Amino acid sequence: MSIDLLEIKNHMPSYNPNSSLEDCIKWLPTPDGIYSVASTMASLNTPHPLVLWFELVWYSHNIPMMNFILWLAIRGRLSTLDRVHLYNPRVGTLCVLCSSSLETHAHLFFECAYSKVIWSHFKDMCGQPWNGHSWPRFIAWAAQR
Q1: Rounded to whole angstroms, how far apart are CA atoms 124 and 79?
Q2: What domain of life is recorded for the organism (predicted)?
Q3: Is 89 exposed, middle or buried (0-12, 13-18, 19+ CB in 10 A)?
Q4: Do residues 102 and 85 lie in contact, with contact meaning Cβ atoms separated by under 8 Å?
């Protein structure tokens, strides 16, 4: 036996099968030992806690394209010019709305003068106080509503 195999054997728990019993196949992820595709999927897909904004993005009456765009925005993955510039340095990085600052998610949605006017109208329409200046604050605020 090679040294590698001996090392593996030394790390394995000792197992002495009962030779008087008939061999059988048992699927361990299920209590009854019977295999099914559903039990395989269940064993592979461990449940994850829902994020705070799950209902905000994925509610049933939303338009799928809007769900996806909001999901990208929340995750900071929209094609803002700062991100596009990483892949194509010839692309300018100034905000398309105000032409005065680097276009990032934070600037585009919360720091740009144009965006601030829109947020002001939005707050008035909602009749709710909100003074968040970032996606995490906005999402926390919106998810409560």
Answers
A1: 29
A2: Eukaryota
A3: exposed
A4: no
Structure tokens, 100: 């005065």
Give the global pTM: 0.62
Amino acid in the structure at residue 107: H
Domain segments of the chain: what residues?
3-44, 54-144
Nearest to 108 by CA among 89, 94, 125: 94
* Residue 134 identity (one-letter amino acid): S
Rounded to whole angstroms, the Cα distance separating 120 from 136 reads 18
Q: Are 135 and 129 in contact (CB under 8 A)?
A: no
How far the first Cα of the chain sits from its last, in Å, is 67
Structural contact between residues 140 and 52, judged by C-beta atoms closer than 8 angstroms: yes
Handedness of CA 72, 73, 79, 85 (dihedral sign): negative
- Who contacts 145 (Cβ-Cβ below 8 Å, separation ≥6)? 126, 128
Closest to 143 measured CA to CA, from 74, 62, 70, 53? 53
Helix (H) or strand (E) holding 133: none
